[in-house]
Amino acid sequence: MFSEALSVTATAVKNRRVIRDAFVQLWSLITRGHVRVVVFGSAGAGKSTLGAVLAGEEVPAEYEESTRTESYRLDADSWCSVLVPPGQEGLRASTWSDLSRYVTNGESTIVLHVVCWGLTAIEPLGYREVEGIYREGMDPRSFVDAYSQHRRAHEIETLKGLSSKLELAPKKLSLLTVITKQDLWWGQREMVRVHYETDYAPHLASLRQQIGDQNFSHKFWSASLLGKNMKDGEGTLLVPTAEGYDDQLRAYHTQRLSRMITEMVAP
After folding, report:
1. Which residue(s) pair with 218 in the sheet?
2. Phi-psi bin for 117: left (phi > 0), alpha (psi -120 to 50), beta?
3. Please, what is the angle between helix 140-166 and helix 89-104, to 10°?
4. Using CA atoms, how far apart are residues 9 and 11, in angstroms rounded to an integer?
5. Can you give the C-alpha Rg of the chain in angstroms?
6. Residue 216 is inside which H or E element, if any?
7. C-alpha distance from residue 239 to each of 114, 128, 184, 211, 232 (Å)
8. pLDDT tens, residue order, the chain (267 aa)
9. Which of 12, 29, 76, 172 is the 20 to 30 Å CA partner of 153?
């Protein structure tokens, strides 16, 4: 999920249509088969961006907080069954429970959990306004260190909460953890890999035990869905895009993400 070995051609990486065509193929499978793909994750992790990218829609340059469950479609006549609920704590009780029922009653066998190394968007707040994290005298870098660590712990708590519901799945269940904002943490990718493989992954053990090895699969993949600096609501630069991260890397990981989901939908 952190590979630098690229298999796309120079022509492909320069053409956005290549990425879109891969997702068009994916969506034709989803629509034809009426497969529900349920997406969970914290607010600001990139769930809505993922849905928009998959559907070939334009992604707004500025962060827009979602407050409702979103469905994405490929065209005006065909609704794609990919459901993205809001990630805010106050909105989870109703919306996440509704979507969890698709899993527990067997209507959905594919779940995506979107995480981002704790770099969730904080707009419209300035970083000094983030209660519980900001301390007097913090500069942007020290704030991001404290904030991302706190949010990574929250990602694990979210996973644990999801597991208690997903373990009730009566059928086979495929879970894909999508680590977004790759362009921001690429320079720390070894730290990112170690965290998700040693701190995050063990919390899947009870889920695997309840569902059974034959009926449960989990994979990681990472990608950059948008490609932009992380700023606060006042325009303060918090995390710049990493040096050395280019369009070729982004295209490779995004196309591979599409193929992975396609394989889950139509193995």
Report:
1. 175
2. left
3. 30
4. 5
5. 18
6. strand 216-222
7. 19, 15, 7, 39, 10
8. 665 544 444 444 444 555 666 666 665 655 555 567 888 888 889 888 887 777 677 766 665 666 656 655 544 444 445 566 665 666 566 666 777 777 877 777 889 999 999 999 999 999 999 999 999 999 999 999 999 999 999 999 999 988 888 888 887 899 999 999 999 999 999 999 999 999 999 999 888 888 898 999 999 999 999 889 999 999 999 999 999 999 999 999 988 988 888 777 765
9. 172
Rounded Cα–Cα distance for residues 45 and 79 (Å): 24
Which residues contact residue 253 at a Cβ distance below 8 angstroms, ignoring those fewer than 6 apart?
Answer: 1, 182, 221, 222, 223, 224
Interior angle at CA 135, CA 238 and CA 91, nearest 5: 70
Which DSSP string do the residues of 88-109 spell out, in sequence order? Answer: -HHHHHHHHHHHHHHHHTTS--
Looking up tokens 């009926």 gives 215
